[in-house]
């Protein structure tokens, strides 16, 4: 099939960008979206033109690198699917496709469709860790965890840190990401030592990176390729309230 | 405590609590106002009771003023930060979950603030249309004639239209705000979230119909 692409081109972080039109010809419906872009880039290279710069790594939907807003939706039209796992059979011959980078102040564009997502790493560094004893490997099942808690922690840990939540959010907030990390650790006994401090530090770190606040639009959940739910944000809010109560209790002693 | 006024979640909790109290107020206010349907006796007696509360009514007023001030201050501050966090927009953006109501909270909020000032000047401080002010008019029992004040006020299509427009803003604000405050305070879960969203929407519509029924009844000549 033949497609018309409108792709965001931007030479560098401080350059002005614009949408450039490309023709993608003879695309097989079996191709992934990234293979389609590879094909277009081969043509550009043969014509001695600058290929479209885009991010990718695993191409199997687990690394979270393929950050593209396709026709106004982060990761494109198929629910719970990353760009690399999106196939061209989701499009029709003759379609126009708009491809843009994540847009948020905390994610500066490096080039074309590639943005710098390291702000998410710094939120993790601020509080996404637990204290463990050094020494031998602990026995399996030495620490009992209820099935419900284990399931919730597993669901939250599915977050691959791709940043689609930020890209979808009208406020450029990273609350879904932060909430997934906070919930993941708060559900487990190993995460309790820092629980109260973690939620404060990580939300503060989020704001310091220039992300917005959460207005409960829930766009993030709709865009998330891993089905992370806004319920985790409610959990983060509960953790924050608990931390405040604990803190005022300590001061009164 | 400091984090409550500084942190991103802390400030949202302040907005949710102040929003909840204002929400409670406008339910009570509507229930009080419906005494107009029982005729002059009903609402004038109700207004007299409120006045006789003395210091209590002033405590209420001060609390409400603090609530509104906190809510507006953080509402504006948060929105400015949010806009700064999202520079430039997509050439194409599809909204999957957010609503017109959720995206226009700051505008419906500011409209409510504007109307609130006008509303207090008109019916509480009698600066606007002093000729209909109940301060000068008394009913046969010597009570302030709030009934006539409202009827004369709302017989003006302009006064009624402004009021109805303001109620649309309130309804939109609450259509998103009610479910949002449950999420902010963590008072929901996977299965209750959709139910709370629906209940919030229905509550907003009921409040809208309740408030609008008053000028509608006056304009239609049912209450006169
Ligand atoms: C009748 C008076 C009002 C009521 C009952 C009310 C209620 C609410 C509620 C329940 C919320 C949701 C809070 C949350 O998500 O936790 C909210 C949010 C909001 N309110 Fe109001 N509000 C009122 C007046 C105002 C006014 C006068 C403003 C003026 C600026 C305003 C601005 C906002 C904004 C900007 C938000 C969204 C904050 C965010 O999530 O980003 N509100 N309101
Ligand atoms: S390239 Fe790894 S998730 Fe898409």
Considering the chains and any ligands shown, give keywords for the structure:
heterodimer, A: 253 residues, alpha+beta, Ubiquitin-like (UB roll), Fumarate Reductase Iron-sulfur Protein, Chain B, domain 2, 2 domains, 5-stranded mixed β-sheet, two-stranded antiparallel sheet, elongated, B: 224 residues, mainly alpha, 3 helical TM bundles of succinate and fumarate reductases, 9 helices, binds protoporphyrin IX containing FE, binds FE2/S2 (inorganic) cluster
How is this structure best described in words?
The complex is a heterodimer of chains A (253) and B (224). Helices cover 37% and strands 11% of the residues of chain A. Chain A has helices spanning 33-46, 118-127, 147-157, 164-168, 175-186, 195-208, 219-223, 231-252; strands at 3-9, 18-24, 69-70, 73-74, 96-100, 109-111, 114-115. In chain A, the strands form two sheets. A five-stranded mixed beta sheet of chain A has the order 2-1-5-3-4. In chain A, strand 6 (109-111) and strand 7 form a beta hairpin. In chain A, helix 5 (175-186) runs antiparallel to helix 6, helix 5 (175-186) packs across helix 8 (231-252) and helix 6 (195-208) crosses helix 8 (231-252). Chain A is elongated, with a radius of gyration of 21 Å. The relative contact order of chain A is 0.13. Chain B is an all-alpha fold and 224 residues long. Chain B has one domain: 3 helical TM bundles of succinate and fumarate reductases, CATH 1.20.1300. In chain B, helix 2 (8-33) crosses helix 8 (157-184). The model of chain B has no long low-confidence stretch (mean pLDDT 94). The interface between A and B is large, with 53 and 43 residues. FE2/S2 (inorganic) cluster binds at residues 56-59, 61-66, 82-84 of chain A.
